[in-house]
Amino acid sequence: MFVERHMTGGEATNQERRDPEQDDARILGNVVQCDGARAVISAYADNSTGPAGQWTVGKMISVNLGETRTIGLVYSITKSDRSWSSEGDNPIEVAIELIGEVRDAGPDKRPVFDRGITAYPHIGALAHRIRSRDLQAVYDLAGRHSVTIGHLSQDENIDACIAIDETLARHFAVVGTTGVGKSTAVSLLLRKTIAARPDLRVLIMDPHNEFAASLPEFCVKVDTNTLDLPFWLFRLEEFAEVLFRGRETEAEEIDMLRDLIPVAKNLYRNPHGGAFLRRGVDALTADTPVPYRIADLIKQIDERMGMLESKNERPILKSLRTRIESALADPRYRFMFHSRLIEDTIHETIGNIFRVPTNGRPVTCFEMAGMPSEVVNSVCSVLARLAFDLALWSEGRLKLLLLCEEAHRYMPADHRLGFAPTRHALSRIAKEGRKYGCYLGVITQRPGELDPTILSQCSTVFAMRLANEQDQAIIRSAIADSSASTLSFLSSMGQREAIAFGEGVATTMRLKFEKLAPELIPGTGKRAAEAASGNGDDVDLAAVVERLRNVPKPQAAALGFAEVVDAQRQAGDSDYRKPPAKPQPDDDFDTRFGLRPTTFGGRTSG
Q1: What is the per-residue pLDDT across 259-306, written as a single tens digit (0 to 9) for each?
Q2: Burial tier of 575 (Cβ tally within 10 Å: 0-12, 13-18, 19+)
Q3: Which terminus has fewer CB within 10 Å in the chain: N or C?
Q4: pLDDT tens for each residue of 281-290
Q5: Tens of pLDDT along 51-66?
């Protein structure tokens, strides 16, 4: 082969491992400067359709070094004298970033890409347009379980693939400014993931109520009307967030709850055991997910207020009792307190939310639009904590993906904002979840406002268009130094375009996501309804106000101990008929606080 190269004279095509039919137009320039990460190529450009057309920012080129070919990404093109001649050649300087090298391996001379560089380009080394085989080798995943999510921006004929197992296990993030197609990209990723990993369950925190319509065949929708999350599943911090409505908690009242909730739980388990707590391995705490009655809790508060030695605690106990009754009466908390019968429904609740069994629908969309922040914080904390615990205690047999849309709401960079238990629960998944099969997906349009600890745990990042300089700096700090110049495209990328980097891809790549059918794009149904509404004259203001108030209408069948008031007849009128006396409820039957109706212990008339 050396003899053949010598006899050819000039630049040898065999040395470049290319077909003899290819012309010399593939030779673009020569290396004139090189350091450990970048190189500069001297070349010529003209107005013809020759090599000049190959020098564009974002293209990949190869530098021939004989046994290997160094791969570089063009990130800058300059002309030193800042002038252009329409006749003849124009000398230009092309700056490239070195990302790795390709070598031919095996008897079939198959190109293999390596991120490291063993031999740097020497002065005068020839730069070429990269071959399609070499370009495929750069993005080859070396046999890892992969899915195709689009194509390369620089070559539409080459598929953009991700290693789905590494993307999930090491968590991923999708970032980009509003309107660039984040939700569409996430919907596409979910469809590809479900097809590749049918054993996976997905829980989506959906603050805009848009994902359920984009995954109709895989999804079960849960909202405030259908959510059944009993109050006794909440830990003390989460329950206090509900009672105090997101305001600063009172330490004395929290201490009272910490003492009284275990007593109420013990009364539920042992109705005749009295208010004595057992000590030992089966002792109950305020965080143990065991049912209890709010009536028992309030009864314990009343008894504590009646004690002579609790004189100084009475204002605290009275305030705590008022908070509890206010939460019970708030219609926004129906999903916690709506059940009149307190039963141990933890199996049914967890099975419905986390799709065990899946019944052909492995995705749960938790729609949170319109929910108050303290409810969202508490519920997200409960669900994230349950997801990790399920994966942990199932010993990895239950694979769960928790997808957080608008993640900066739950995990803000400022620790004074947000809800600490939610941040802790999500941080636990980010740091330890992959060991047990609990994965985290983060979606945000403001990575600068996201807790950097969470973002640093996302080993695969899909960065779409970002205009904010602070957000770009956050992504720039996460990407490898050898691919930093790729992020110069962040502010100018088009729709559905993204820069993917991390463990889930072979090397940093700029890709364009596949197109989804119009009816499967998140939010399409809402936009169609808005367009069909015309000028807004047909808005039903009464219905809007009813939804704003969020107060259910009373039903006569449900008013067991109420009397119907006659607005036309008042006491003192001649034809006024006094309503019959209502029966007095039994002492053990209080529907406000969730006691079960029972006939045991009824008194017999003597």
Answers
A1: 999 989 888 887 766 555 555 545 788 888 888 888 889 999 988 888
A2: exposed
A3: C
A4: 457 888 888 8
A5: 445 677 878 889 988 8
The sign of the CA dihedral 330, 333, 338, 340 is: negative
Confirm if 420 and 237 have CB atoms less than 8 A apart: yes
Q: Is 271 left (phi over 0), alpha (psi -120 to 50) or beta?
A: alpha
Cα–Cα distance measured from residue 53 to residue 127, given in angstroms and rounded to the nearest whole number: 14
What are the beta bridge partners of residue 103?
68, 112
Other Cβ atoms less than 10 A from the Cβ of 332: the count is 17
Hunting for tokens 């957000």 — which residue is that? 471
- How far from the centroid of its chain's Cα atoms is residue 352's Cα? 20
Of 168, 159, 153, 154, nearest to 141 (Cα)?
A: 159
CB neighbours of 116 closer than 8 A, spacing ≥ 6? Answer: 100, 101
Q: What would the DSSP string read from start to end of 538-558?
A: T--HHHHHHHHHT-PPP-GGG
- Computed over every residue of the chain, the mean pLDDT equals 79
Q: For residue 13, what are its two tokens?
A: 């095509």
Structure tokens at 319: 């305030």
Distance, CA of 475 to CA of 502 (rounded, Å): 12
Question: Cis omega before residue 216 (within 30°)?
Answer: no
Question: Given this model, what pLDDT does residue 35 score?
Answer: 87
**At which residue do the structure tokens 């947000």 appear?**
418
Whether this model's pTM surpasses 0.85? no
Class of residue 522 by CB neighbours under 10 A (exposed 0-12, middle 13-18, buried 19+): buried
**CA 450 – CA 418 distance, rounded (Å):** 11
